[in-house]
Design a protein that fits this description.
CATH class of one domain: Alpha Beta
Bound molecules: nicotinamide-adenine-dinucleotide, galactose-uridine-5'-diphosphate
Helix content: 25-40%
Shape: globular
Strand content: 15-25%
Number of strands: 14
Keywords: Carbohydrate metabolism, Isomerase, NAD
Radius of gyration: 19 Å
Protein name: UDP-glucose 4-epimerase
Order of helices and strands: EHEEHEHHEHEEHEEEHEEHEEHH
GO molecular function: UDP-glucose 4-epimerase activity
CATH topology of one domain: Rossmann fold
Strand order of the largest sheet: 3-2-1-4-5-6-11
CATH superfamily of one domain: NAD(P)-binding Rossmann-like Domain
Largest sheet: 7 strands, parallel
Distance between the termini: 29 Å
Pathway: Carbohydrate metabolism; galactose metabolism
Subunit structure: Homodimer.
Length: 328
């Protein structure tokens, strides 16, 4: 099969590109390199240097070849930043999604996999894992913008027969176990790589956003999913998209508090992670844990890297081996 991957130079997209290649597919990447890296795209993979805000350029890529499917990772993706720059986030994520899906419909693409997010749930703390049927009530423009793209896909199916899978990832983390790819956001804002950099002595203290949440230790709880397990879910879902569009939550079903993440990094690295209290980060939900039963039942997906320590271990390895991140 021939697949187009938007955002394939980014963290999650680059790992899915590897999984697609490993599965024997033809892959091309569309990216504007705003946060992604050319060196994250494996040698030999064709690259379209295109901004999805440009509807004509986007349509040209879709018309360039017959595509068996499109995987859409390209996005602005930071919860906190979306609170500060809300209209920019809403516009970018909506318009880029609209341009892409419209071009897919126009060129007869029948399958789209979309990176949605747990951030469209938000709301009060939850004791139970969140199923797909839970109320959508984003706490941030980022979460809202992702839901807007889910709605575009809903109409693309009803009116044009484009089938889609919206995968609502919880917190993606880890790195390719073979060392071929890793997480390199600049600046880095995610908890696990930041805590590791403190452990490695590359940063001073970690700022812990919020210690007064209604959780067992006062810090937020997240469900971390290894990026390789996430990639495997994409391959399985692609094989199954056919008669109907689907929406799946994608996580391990186990939550870890931010303080437990710090402890895991200390355990795995053998180094102390200095941290200091900071105020809550606007837009953060207290608890986000996935119920991924539907995905497991429909596709047979089972995460292989489900413990936090394993996730931290692969991130640590990649950061040790690539102190400057991607350099080419
Ligand atoms: N990382 C997570 O924990 C997480 C969790 C839930 C959902 N997601 C979603 O998964 C996707 C990938 O996240 P990530 O962490 O890999 O992000 P990332 O920033 O590493 O990757 C995004 C990629 O998209 C490209 N891009 C951005 N805007 C573009 C545009 N207008 N035109 C073309 N290319 C563009 C960037 O250059 C980058 O290569 C995003 O859609 C994000 O919202 C991520
Ligand atoms: O320096 C930091 C960085 C993060 N945190 C805290 O750590 C937790 C996790 O934060 P991340 O920034 O690592 O991840 P988010 O949960 O904000 O968001 C990630 O997962 C979401 C899904 O849950 C999204 O889709 C989003 O794209 C992706 O960045 C949050 O409570 C955050 O406040 C800190 O305390 N200090």
């Amino acid at each position: 099969m021939r697949y187009l991957v938007t955002g394939g130079a980014g963290f999650v997209g680059s790992h899915v590109v590897l999984a697609l290649l490993d599965a024997g597919h033809d892959v091309a990447v569309l990216d504007n390199f705003s946060t992604g890296h050319r060196a994250a795209v494996p040698e030999g993979v064709p690259v379209y240097h295109v901004d999805l805000m440009d509807d004509q350029a986007t349509a040209n890529v879709l018309g360039d070849k017959p595509w068996d499917g499109v995987l859409h990772f390209a996005s602005l993706s930071l919860v906190g930043a979306s609170m500060a720059d809300s209209f920019h986030y809403l516009r970018q994520n909506y318009v880029t999604g609209l341009n892409l899906v419209q071009a897919c419909a126009a060129h007869g693409v029948k399958k789209i996999v979309f990176s949605s997010t747990a951030a469209l749930f938000g709301g009060p703390e939850r004791a139970e894992p969140i199923p797909e049927t839970a109320l959508v009530q984003p706490d941030s423009p980022y979460g809202e913008s992702k839901f807007m793209v889910e709605r575009i896909l809903h109409w693309a199916d009803r009116l044009y027969g484009v089938k889609s899978a919206c995968l609502r990832y919880f917190n993606a983390a880890g790195a390719d176990p073979h060392g071929r790819a890793g997480e390199d956001h600049r600046p880095e804002t995610h908890l696990i790589p930041l805590a590791i950099d403190v452990a490695l002595g590359r940063r001073s203290a970690l700022r812990l956003f919020g210690t007064d949440y209604p959780t067992h230790d006062g810090s937020c709880i997240r469900d971390y999913i290894h990026v390789t397990d996430l990639a495997d879910a994409h391959i399985r879902v692609l094989d199954q998209i056919g008669a109907r569009s689907v929406v799946y939550n994608l996580g391990n079903g186990r939550g870890y508090s931010n303080l437990e993440v710090i402890q895991s990094v200390e355990r795995v690295s053998g180094c102390r992670v200095a941290w200091e209290k900071a105020g809550r980060r606007p837009g953060d939900a207290a608890v986000l844990v996935a119920d991924s039963t539907s995905l497991r039942q429909d596709t047979g997906w089972t995460p292989q890297w489900s413990t936090l320590d394993k996730i931290v271990e692969t991130t640590l390895q990649w950061r040790k081996n690539n102190p400057e991140g991607y350099t080419r």
